[in-house]
Amino acid sequence: MKQCIGVRKETKDRTQQRVPLSPEQVALLVREHGLRVLVEPMERRIFPDEDYAAVGAELTTDLRDCNIVFGVKEIAPDFMLDNMAYMFFSHTVKGQSYNMPMLRHVLDHGITLFDYELIKDTEGKRLVFFGNYAGYAGMIDSLWALGRRLEWEGYRTPFGHIRYATSYGLLSEAETAFREVGEHIRTDGLPSELVPFICGFTGYGNVSKGAQHLYDLLPVESISPTDLEAFIARGEYSNRVVYKVEFREEHMAAPRQSGGVFRLQEFYDHPDRYESVFEQYLPYLTMMVNGIYWEPRYPRLVTIEAARRLFGGAEPPRLRVIGDVTCDIDGSVQLTVKETSSENPVYVYEPETGKIVDGWEGRGPVILAVDKLPTELPREASAAFGASLFPFIPVLAAADLTLPFERLQLPAELHPAIIAHQGRLTPSFEYLTEYL
Q1: Complete domains list, the chain, with CATH
Q2: Under a CB-based contact definition with an 8 Å cutoff, are residues 146 and 120 in contact?
Q3: pLDDT value of residue 24
Q4: Could you report how far apart the first and last alpha carbons of the chain are, in Å?
Q5: Residue 281: which pLDDT band, with cuts at 50, 70 and 90?
């Protein structure tokens, strides 16, 4: 077997700094597993090329000797080698139109494609992910955007002290900033016009957990979605705390059939039997952080029509910011009409006209839709990701990937992560033919 792996340079956009393996992890692969590791030079990588060379990696632009090449984001066809095996986030399993030309190239050129997103345990839990760091960065950026929006509206609040995520060298620096903001809220309170300050979190997976980790450093009180309307009606809230609501599937959707009972498995299997009920919560939220997994067969959370109704009144609503960490274009948040980047991260969606304006000024919610949030905390995100990927590296380096798909000798977690093998869609992904 080749016992050789590659780490490619990221070519999708110039803000990408993440890597699938840190130099420390490469050192272990070289020293303890006897692997040959080829690293393609890259100027903007969070770990410089010299760090990889120092631990025994070979810096080269020629990755043809590799058994498999690891990247982070999608790879344009021009950068792929024929008959090579690759592992990266392909964003193809939903039939995403913008990546179908890439998938067609994979099939036409005998390429084997693994996707990190599909590496799961027996209970379906993802094992290799950046999700927590997407949540961390999404929360930082959402609160940063909120501070800017409120300043534009004429409010001076502690949120104005939050900087954009890329200005924090480490997550611990952001955590310190959140604690300081929390102390300001406890001491000075928030303007009465912003009380109660309520942030809604959709989902309860790694993304939502990461976002809530930072939010919970503020003086937080939790409210159940079912109690939200009554909580507002009572009027018993404080300007020295912020409130949090976590929405699960049963809060966001309801059976179409009158009198029907929500059943989670039925919702997963037959989402067409359900409709969104999330609009009822929007008037109460100051900010929303969206961290759910979504496919087009599921109901949307925030539709354009719902936004028009919310912003159609004489007085502007409470909702200022939607941090769409999920970032599905025209997806669960229909106001996410484009991806943004750390260089221009937010825009205002004006529901009445459908117009979008970059920045945070305008009549409508500020939308954060950065699709590469973990790269805003690249050092720690890469190290954590590499640690989750590391156990699978030696077996992939040794595997005979020229064998037929059904004869591949791989761990149970890896076999279902193969979208294409030697230029053919694997049985679980033959449905993608219709999108091609």
Answers
A1: 4-129+380-434 (3.40.50.720), 131-376 (3.40.50.720)
A2: no
A3: 97
A4: 33
A5: very high
